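Consider the following assembly input.
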Amino acid sequence: MGGYELYLIPGFPLIASLLIAALLLRRGERVAPFALIAALLGSLSLSVWALSLTEGHRSFSTALTWLHVGSITLEAGILIDGLSSIMMIVVCTVSLLVQIYSIGYMKGEAGYGRYFAYMSLFSGSMLGLVISDNIAQTYIFWELVGICSYLLIGFWYRRPCAAAAAKKAFVVTRFGDLGFLTAILILSFQSHGILGPHAVFGFRPLEHLVGAGAMGPTIVTVVALLLFCGAVGKSAQFPLHIWLPDAMEGPTPVSALIHAATMVAAGVYLVARCYFFFAAAPIALFVVAIIGLATLFFAASMGVAENDIKRVLAYSTISQLGYMMLALGVGGYTAGFFHLTTHAFFKALLFLTAGSVIHSVHTNDMWQMGGLGRRMPITAITCLVGALALAGIPPLSGFWSKDEILAAVWFSAIPGGKIIFAFALAGVVLTAFYMFRLWFVTFTGAPRTEMAAHAHESPLVMTIPLLVLATLVVVAGGLKAYVPWASGGIAEVIRFGHGEDRASSVVMAASMVVAVIGIAVAWAAYRASVISPAAFNARFPAVYHLLKNAWYFNRAWELFATHVVIAGARLAAWFDRHVVNGMVDGVAWISGWIANRLRLAQTGQMQFYALVFVIALIAGLIVVFGRDQSLLTLVMRRP
Amino acid sequence: MTAAVTHQLQSGAFWYLFAFACLAAGVLIPGLLVVLSRNLLHSALWLLPCLVSVAGLFLLLGAELLAAVQILVYCGGIVVLILFAVMLTHGLGHADIRVVNQQLLWGVIGAAALAGVVLHLLSRQMWPIGSATAPADVTGRLAEALLSPYVLAFEVASVVLLVAMVGAIVIARAEPE
Amino acid sequence: MTSAPLIPIHSYLVVSVLLFAIGLIGVFTRRNAIAVLLSIELMLNAANINFVAFWRYSGGAQMEGQVFAIAIITVAAAEAAIALAIILNVYRRFRTVNVDQINLMKG
């Protein structure tokens, strides 16, 4: 078993993207999605086979040397263990279902073929990121998925808000990627010379290095924090979360695949992959947990005030990613990853149902919907399944994963653990609340507009993926049995906790009760009209404005950009103009000064030149004959 | 140097020395006057005795043909030519107040320095002295040299003269109005 | 004239050097172009004396000394002709033959 066939897991979709690009040129657009679907089926089967290879905590890797530059060797390698194989299966499955759905959603759109070309490029890049065995290769695919995200958010590029959103996404994530790149650079310097003449990038070798203490604790902490920077950008953690709500400008399947299930999960995946760094740097872990907590809470609060259904789901995604980070931060490695997989399924489902609704009603605003439950039953029911999973109601998968996270927090030794738990629990209430607010307003009650009154169910090609996903959401709770494989390779249990696999009925009960409370409040406010949102807003205007404006984060970043960044740019410009240019001008000025002095010798007077000539001659004579050199022997050269 | 002089004094030596001294004075003093005269015409005229004395020195050294050539060409040709030029531009000479330019001091110092250095170098050098008797048939041998080993130089010299003649005519030609 | 040389060569060389220096002074200091030309002639003659002296005092058998002296005289003639033609031209252009007033190459 050479293992090289596993390179096809990312290979198939990448080849498909080239194929689709070729087909586009020949106007074969209709065939494009099928090429991608075929590729994804291939990748899925290979991924399942890969999973079977990791039976019993085994893992294996293989690599091809790609580039040698001095002391840096870049390899193209694959690493198959529990973590990567499960992630690959999730990515392939969700991607496959989304592509099938897209056939219906994107029908009749200009750029149909372009869409699938980008989608296949993305799928291949995401799989490449997951399967990668060294950090440099991960970075390459990291940037690739970033580009695909940019291209797909700005798919309808003629719309200015879409173009702006794409730009914002790219710039903000790039900001975080700076940290990631710095981490790689530090590693290339630090690991050089330890295991051999080359810098070490592979995950397994790095793990051994860190475990053996070959790099000082400060370096490890710095690297871990910088890696987390990249994760903060990509996974839209606070404070770099501002791009994700705007990213909803892209087509809904794009939001489902990229901005819910896969790309944004890449940050969490990176932290999991590099967990050995974090395990050796408790400060970094603490930072991860706190950021995760902050994100979770802020985002959930912002989701409450949104009226655009996609944006609600976007904030929800941000919040759930915060839960995953929190889990990783308190030592719940398995819990965090488990939640990543269940979230992928139910969030994708929720986005696709939202897409189905938008496709029918042609608006994103939930207040222009209403009563769609009767007219779009399949959509409504699958959405309900997803909503219940998100809120964390048993026996859906979402409950199991969220409960594990809460248990991990409860049992962890992190400082302030109980307060963190309280906030996390509050987040559960908010989550249930905003999700069911959305569901009730959209699917129940009377239709609020003509469009809503005449809505109809989506075609089969769109509803079947919904049903498949809903099924997965229900059964994925059983995935738990496979997930412990994911931790194969992590030698020590995390300092903060024994959070893995400890169940607590108290926690379970608490989370259930809290979720039900959230749903009940939503029902009371939006279905039964018992509580009036308008009255609430009138009584607490500060709260209302704060949430409506998303805690003014966008404004804060804007001020930062205009004042700090531009001030820095002005400084750099001044330096360039006066110092750098100054040096160049200085050289020119010196030349001029010397020339002006030298030109005094050019009097234009012939006799002056003759005089100088003779004086030089005298000097020459003195130099040559000064040491008793004989004129005769010099000149005559005769014995 | 004085020891060598006294060693070689013989009976005819006195006249030889006397001739040399006269000719040397005839070279240097008119030469000085060429350079120092305020009047350009006088400068040109003082050149004549100087050049004739040089021809005399040639004779003293045994180069008869050369002495003749010197008088014919230099004194008879070049000085006359210069006199023509002086006449043609002479009208301006009167207006000048200054005869010498600004670098009088440094010019003299420079020339004196060169003379000093070279004289010093000469003084510490003992030159080989050739045969006491003068060679025979100098002119014949000169002719032979000019027409055998150095015939090329001879021919080129005539071309140079031709070119110079043509060139001088072209350069000095009045601009066509 | 075939009498043996009775004075050391240094005498002739000294005369040559002094004449050369005199000519050099003229070249450096005289304003009139024709005066400069005269000084140059002096320098050329000094060189000639040098050549002929060395010819004589190295046996007189090798004629190179005299040949070169003849070449110098030839070139001096040609040069005088050209120089005077140029001076005439300069006079027409600049209305002066003072060398220090002709400084177009200044700078």
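The first helix of chain C runs from residue 9 to 29. Ask yourself how this observation constrains the way the partners meet.
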